[in-house]
Design goal:
alpha+beta, three-stranded antiparallel beta sheet, about 15% strand
Length: about 425
């Protein structure tokens, strides 16, 4: 052991500065990645102190560390501030994304004189998500710049939001319905959906020759001679060990922590539409609440059966169909005793669409408590009674007024929906 605390012979495993091991962030041809990141941080701090209003070095360094995590981001900040010393206060849309985040961090630290970059087209201080010649533009201006195209699925003429497997234009509604998460895509082509949990390969690629990924071992496309095989998952994001089991994965939980699909557990809570405590399969988005598997009816796309834009299911069948066109065997309804498509399976048996809605809207005096409530048949009770007397959780209750009624839209009864629509029309 030497006076510096290092073991003799360990010098060969350290970088040139003698601060980091060669295995920790070592980049072939570029030297020690950790040293490069620290030097980039020093350059960015010097550029900020020279360009910004009088601030301390500690505040500037802490803001840069939070806004720019990588060496490339810190070099972008330093290079832009050297070329444009007034970039922190002129509101130019040409500022790179790390510099925009730095402005937010400096303002949060109490530094005044910061100006958010403004959109090149409209001049508003909005998030700049598009890069064009001359600077950045906001989402609204980016959509206005797009040339309207005819959607290959629904036929609507609107700005292009994405494309299908053949590269044809898709509108925003169809693109969101046809989107496939990267972890669910085929590891060979990276486009089609793979449903197998053990072999993540689509039907088309399974019949073609493929290699094994050099990183995770999944099926990958045949590489170019002289290069390593890399699957579509590893090409999107470098896999990291799962925080639970340690297997390599590209999945992340809501907090950004690595977590594979095998260790994922869906949350259990009250469904925002039916009110039952069930497993939540679709988290709340905007004004739509958390939904269970029964209330989640699928993405809104053009039905391949009737051609209407409706909530459809059928990803595994390869044919998106709405509830009216989906193939369902007819059964004898337990209420009207007719051979019809069942809409629900109740305690007394299958119930058709007409009888289902009539039963939810009907009210009568409960033989047990005498209250005027919705009466249904429950297991263990010979006659229809209310949910309170049966000790069951009430179903289809309006999320606003609490009335037991047939819900009309997004967990609300017809009266509440009518009130909202009349208020929106007349104020």
């Amino acid at each position: 052991m030497t006076a510096t605390g290092r073991v003799p012979g360990e010098r060969g495993n350290l970088c040139k500065a003698g601060l980091h091991k060669r295995s920790d962030g070592w980049i072939p041809g570029s030297g020690c990645g950790l040293c490069n990141r620290e030097r980039a941080l020093d350059r960015a701090v010097d550029a900020v102190l020279a360009a910004a209003p009088p601030i301390s070095e500690e505040i500037g360094r802490a803001a840069i560390v939070r806004a720019a995590l990588t060496t490339r981001m810190r070099n972008e900040i330093a290079a832009h501030l050297v070329a444009h010393p007034d970039a922190l206060g002129d509101g130019s849309s040409a500022a790179p994304a790390p510099l925009r985040r730095l402005i937010v961090e400096l303002r949060a630290a109490g530094i005044t004189g910061m100006t958010d970059p403004r959109c090149l087209d409209c001049g508003n201080a909005k998030p700049l998500i598009g890069r064009v010649e001359g600077g950045g533009i906001c989402d609204a201006c980016k959509k206005r710049r797009r040339t309207p195209q005819r959607c290959a699925r629904c036929g609507k003429v609107s700005p292009r939001e994405g494309g299908d497997v053949q590269g044809r234009a898709l509108c925003g509604t169809c693109h969101r319905g046809a989107y496939i998460r990267p972890v669910h895509r085929c590891t060979v082509c990276g486009i089609n959906r793979a449903y197998s949990t053990r072999r993540r390969v689509c039907v088309e690629c399974a019949e073609q020759p493929h290699a094994a990924c050099a990183t995770c071992g999944l099926a990958a496309a045949i590489p170019v001679p002289g290069t390593e095989a890399r699957c579509a998952h590893c090409a999107v994001s470098p896999p990291t060990p799962c925080a639970v089991c340690g297997d390599l994965t590209i999945c992340r939980d809501r907090t950004g922590r690595a977590r594979c699909e095998g260790c994922y557990q869906r949350p259990v809570g009250a469904c925002g539409r039916c009110g039952r405590a069930r497993t939540i399969v679709r988290r709340a988005v905007g004004s739509d609440p958390d939904l269970c598997a029964i209330c989640w009816t699928g993405p809104t796309v053009m039905c391949e059966g009737c051609g209407q834009v409706r909530p459809c299911r059928g990803e595994r069948r390869g044919r998106m169909l709405c509830s009216a066109c989906a193939p369902v065997a007819e059964q004898e309804c337990a209420h009207c005793h007719r051979q019809k498509r069942p809409l629900a399976q109740w305690a007394e048996g299958p119930v058709c669409n007409r009888c289902y809605h009539l039963a939810l809207a009907a009210k009568d005096r409960c033989p047990s408590c005498g209250e005027t409530r919705r009466l249904l048949r429950y297991r263990g009770f010979p006659d229809p009674i209310c949910s309170h007397c049966a000790g069951a959780v009430p179903d289809h209750v309006c999320g606003r007024c609490g009335a037991e009624d047939d819900l009309y839209e997004r967990g609300l009864c017809g009266r509440c929906v009518l009130n909202d629509r009349v208020t929106a029309l007349f104020g």
